[in-house]
Structure formats: C-alpha cells, structure tokens
Amino acid sequence: MTREKIFEQIQTKKSFLCVGLDIDVEKIPSHLRNLEDPIFAFAKEIIDATHSYAIAYKPNLAFFEFYGVQGLISFGKIIRYLNQNYQDHFIIADAKRSDIGNTSSRYAKAFFETYNVDAVTVAPYMGRDAIEPFLAFENKYAILLTLTSNPGAFDFQFAETDGQKLYEKVLKISQDWNGSERLMYVVGATKATFIASIRKIIPNAFLLVPGVGSQGGSLEAVAKAGMNHQCGILVNCSRSIIYKSKNPDFAELAMIEAKNTQEEMAIYLSQKGLI
User: Fold this and answer.
1) Domain 3-272 belongs to what architecture?
2) How far, in Å, CA of 82 to CA of 91, rounded?
3) Which residues lie closer than 8 Å to 7 by C-beta, 6 or more apart?
4) Mean pLDDT across the chain, nearest whole number?
5) Sequence-separated (6 or more) residues with CB below 8 Å from residue 93
6) pLDDT reading at 216 higher than 70
7) Which of 96, 165, 259, 272 is catalytic?
8) Is there a catalytic annotation at residue 96?
9) Cβ neighbours of residue 88 under 8 Å, at least 6 residues apart?
10) For residue 148, which of 161, 140, 158, 162 has the smallest C-alpha distance?
11) Where do the structural domains in the chain lie, given as residue ranges?
12) DSSP assignment of 70-132, as one string?
C-alpha cells in the first residue's frame, strides 16, 4: 500500500485509527470459547464491527504464538480475511523482529510474501543490515521501535552519547539506510511530549502510536504534536476497543468505542485542515 493510499483512507474515513488485535482467549466472551477457532471468530466480529471507523489492524504475534500451531493458523486466517474482504485496510504484523541479514530476509519474506501484510514492527538494536531486508519490498513498510510507551523505555532509549539520546540516534541514523522511505516509527502515546521534537527529525514519516486508551495516553496531545501534511500518525487502540464487554454485545460495544474514537480524530483532522 502506498503512503498516498493510506492518506486517502484517512481522509475518506476521517480517521487514523488502528485497531490492535491482542487476542487473549481467556478475555473473550465465553460463548465463543468452545468454537473450533475462537480466536478467528472473535477477530472476525471485531473487524466486521469496526472496519468503517478504522484504517488499519495490528495483530500482535505474541498472542497467536502463545497458542502454538493453532494460533498461527488463526493469524493466517485473519490476514486472509482482511485481504479478501477489507483490501483498503493497512495490515501491520506486530512481530518486533530483526536479526542478522539472511535471517531478517526470511522474516521479511514470511510477512510480506507468505502472509501478505503491509508492515511489520522491527527492533533497531542490530542496526542497518538487520533492518534493510525489510525495506527491500515495494509498498511494504518496516515500523521501527523508537520511543516506546512502557516504563522500561527509560532504561536504554534515553541514554545519551555525543549529546544525543539513543532514540534520537535511531531516528537520525535510520534515515541513511537503503529504502528508508519505507520506514515508519513506533512512538508511544505516553511519550507525547517528545513527539514535537521527533517531528523535527522525521517530518514526513508515519508514526505508529500505541498507548492511547488503556495505557492512559492522550489522543489530543498525540494528534496536535504528531500530525503532518499527510496526517502521518496511526494511533493504535486495542484493549479499550476489543474488550469492552465479555457478553454477546462485545462487537456492538467495540463498534461504538471505535466510532467515538473516529469522531474525535475527525475533529483533529479538520483542525489541521486535512479534511
């Protein structure tokens, strides 16, 4: 998917919502748990209920790998369902991969060719040769973990060398990698006060912003600090949408929460002059 196509969807839906599919079978409604594939059944209902208000979906691989082979089968079914029924939606595999070059190349082919997702989250610690294999695919994206929303972010990401914080060096050095125009960056909503300075380093890149909702990040703060000429942000909400209820009305309540989030996003898009 091109950046222009992503922006077109943002304008059409007046939304920059990404719904995170962090599916824990213990948290889904009990009437789904005895089905042959409860993970897929739950995800399908969430997707069908929220697709009008979201432009992206982000299944988190950990929640599928936990269930072994069956979990990966469910992951594959969800990706196929999205590709067959909601082709305009941006699909992110939240896998946080990276390794030496030939291993990263296999990871990239697995997600971009075998599963056919649009983007995969990657960890920058091993540097250029671990990330460039993900950047070799036209209209596919690597989303680089940069400044995360968890408390442990302060352990390493703010360490200073040569007068620069580590996350700032990640932003700057990654701009010189081959295929860097296909980089996006993870910046947590709980670090919204840093987004304005991040925008000075990467004014045109898309940011994937988790941490709004259950983690307490402010959508308004993220939007005002992070938007660029193409919106440039995808705000991920997971638990606050998909776990609104453990009853049969879970999909309806997820839809209402997604709609409420979309309506707030429309206000910020309008204020920015993007719709």
Assistant:
1) Alpha-Beta Barrel (3.20)
2) 8
3) 230, 231
4) 95
5) 58, 59, 61, 79, 111, 115, 117, 119, 120, 121
6) no
7) 96
8) yes
9) 5, 9, 55
10) 158
11) 3-272
12) HHHHHHHHHHHHHHHH-TTSEEEEEEEE--SHHHHHHHHHIIIIIS--SEEEE--TT-HHHHG
